[in-house]
Design goal:
Length: 323
């Protein structure tokens, strides 16, 4: 029998669509496995402050289709200190919590790892629109974000077409370009600027636009990942050099909201279920991850050391397809 009888669940860092589906899965499968589940509000902050409550089957009713997170999320600076982590662990003890499921991005998983280092049992679930968790091919919220950006870009394309303009779209992703690259391919962008690849303004932005114009193009889409620069200055410079009217759009937080797609709901459900299954089996200090399209669990220390590379073939394909 596992000694893990009561588990806590929290969401942390940037919110992502599908986090609710993950919470729901943790609660329902946790209870199914005979455990008590406690919700921790506002991420690590709520853990430190004891903002913790018991969750039952009905406490996660009607949330699977909702964006955001019912448990709320904050960024907690205290948790980057040993004192903060120790406070969190002692509060978990006060509430009788034996293990914590942390749903969040890279920072949140580092917080979970620190909890583990100080003796708390944890499971991490990658949840971020950025898809920038090295150990996992997929993070909860990524697919919804891609679809939201794609929808916005289709609308922007209509007006770029009508006015024969160049539209420069800045998308989220922090230091990663997964959103930019994939939406770039899906929308046939002329130029995709990624933080992972250094770029030369004339060679990588101006040249493909001019060449496109010479081949008969009349409107242009440039996608820039936020980690690679700002859309406003890029649009200004394109207009200055090419005389093609250019407009910048910064999509901002619209990318983080909205009803999760089927893929996000299903992935979140599977990952949440995997987390409680591990805990029920007495296995902890793991990150649930998608690897070679299969759900696996990876030691949390190893998971945070793992990096993943941008696919060069995808970058090359994006260039060929936009000719
Ligand atoms: P995300 O989880 O989306 O990457 P953040 O990077 O803001 O978002 O991290 C969320 C929270 O995780 C932070 O507010 C902090 O409490 C905790 N955290 C972030 N980085 C670390 C770290 N290096 N070590 C421990 N905890 C961290």
């Amino acid at each position: 029998m596992s000694e893990i009888k009561t588990i806590g669940v929290l969401t942390s860092g940037g919110d992502a669509p599908g986090m609710n589906a993950a919470i729901r899965a943790v609660v329902r499968t946790g209870i199914y496995h005979g455990m008590t589940v406690k919700g921790i509000n506002k991420g690590f902050n709520g853990l430190i402050n004891g903002d913790i409550f018991k969750m039952d089957l009905r406490s996660v009713s009607d949330i699977i289709h909702k964006g955001g997170t019912i448990l709320k999320t904050v960024r907690c600076q205290d948790f980057k200190t040993e004192e903060g982590i120790r406070k969190g662990i002692s509060m978990a003890e006060v509430f009788g919590i034996d293990a914590i499921v942390v749903i969040g991005g890279d920072g949140s998983l580092r917080g979970a790892r620190d909890l583990a280092r100080f003796g708390m049992k944890v499971i991490g679930i990658p949840g971020t629109i950025d898809n920038d968790i090295g150990c996992s091919e997929y993070t909860i919220g990524y697919d919804t974000c891609l679809n939201t950006v794609q929808d916005a870009l289709d609308k922007i394309r209509d007006t770029a077409y009508s006015h024969e303009r160049c539209s420069v779209l800045e998308v989220m992703g922090r230091h990663a370009g997964y959103i930019a690259l994939n939406v770039g391919i899906a929308s046939g962008a002329e130029v995709i600027i990624l933080p992972e690849r250094p770029f030369d303004f004339n060679k990588d932005i101006i040249k493909p636009i001019i060449e496109g114009r010479n081949r008969g193009k009349k409107h242009y889409i440039v996608i820039i990942a936020e980690g690679a620069g700002g859309a406003v200055s890029v649009a200004e410079k394109i207009e200055e050099i090419t005389r093609i009217e250019s407009r910048a759009t910064i999509l901002g937080h619209i990318q983080r909201g909205g009803s999760p797609t089927v893929r996000d709901r299903v992935m979140a459900s599977i990952m949440g279920a995997k987390a409680t299954e591990l805990l029920s089996d007495g296995i902890y200090n793991k990150v649930v991850a998608l690897k070679e399209n299969r759900l696996v669990s990876i030691d949390i220390e190893e998971a945070l050391e793992t990096t993943k590379e941008m696919d060069n073939d995808m970058i090359e394909l994006s260039r060929i397809l936009s000719l």
